[in-house]
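Q: I'm writing up a methods section and want to include an example of the input and output format. Could you take the sequence below and give the corresponding predicted structure tokens, formatted cleanly so I can copy it straight into the document?
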Amino acid sequence: MPLGEHLRELRNRLVKSLLAIVVTTVIAAFFYKDIIQFFTDPILEAVGCNYSFAELAENTENTECARIVQNGLLSPFTLALTVSLSSGVVLATPVWLYQLWAFVAPGLHRHEKKYGLAFVGAGFPLFLTGAYFAYWSLPKMATVMLEFSIIGSDNQLPLDDLLQLIMRMIIVFGLSFELPLLLVMLNFGGVLSGKKMAGWWRGMIMGITLFAAIATPSTDPISMLALAGPIWIMYFMATGIALANDRRRARREAEGPADDEASELDLTPEEVGGVETVSASRALPEQASAERVNGYDDVT
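A: Here is the clean output for your methods example:
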């Protein structure tokens, strides 16, 4: 395609993706309260309270609790828009991912399409798995954080700040679970070998642990292990896949190129001293005719 056709194709793909996001955003707007409750109910069940300040001061056994509040006249409206748009983008993920793939796929070879589909198919479930671990660890994290509250105080949680924290945790956990997939992609691309990945295991365990400790706002080990533990396991799984791929690649190179593959050129320079040179008449290709077209023969 010429450049203009590529730009028109990109425009059409973007328009279809935006239309899908708009439609899913409108649908999510009717259920935005249910979406908010889905994310906040586990936290409220863990740390929520229905006591007044006087009752809370008298009942010291339930001091670590919190209420969700909204500040400002426009806060409910802006929060509804934010939640609806975010949900629309997530719900429209299959559509805009397909549009992105449809735009890129025609320029890929058959094996590149196969690897691309495999990585996309594995990447989305990995992200959902990380998001689930974040959703599971948030109530425990909230309980630990509220243990630092002053006795008798009423901890109020602004709803927009709470949702931002939840979304940040989900995104961090989801992207963290993509690390093993990235390592496998680098190995299949010939950038990183499985032997190097196996040799990095001590540093990777320490790095993953430090990242989990920084990424989780709470100080409890449960939230940290909920993020670090699965990544440790998937790192060693990615190392095993990379080692198996390296062995497969070594066997294929030993067998030589396939019938439909071009062999590598030997570009090593050779000395010409003491070697019989080829005459100019033999070095040049044979002329099809002695006629010249516009002053040029076949060679030029």
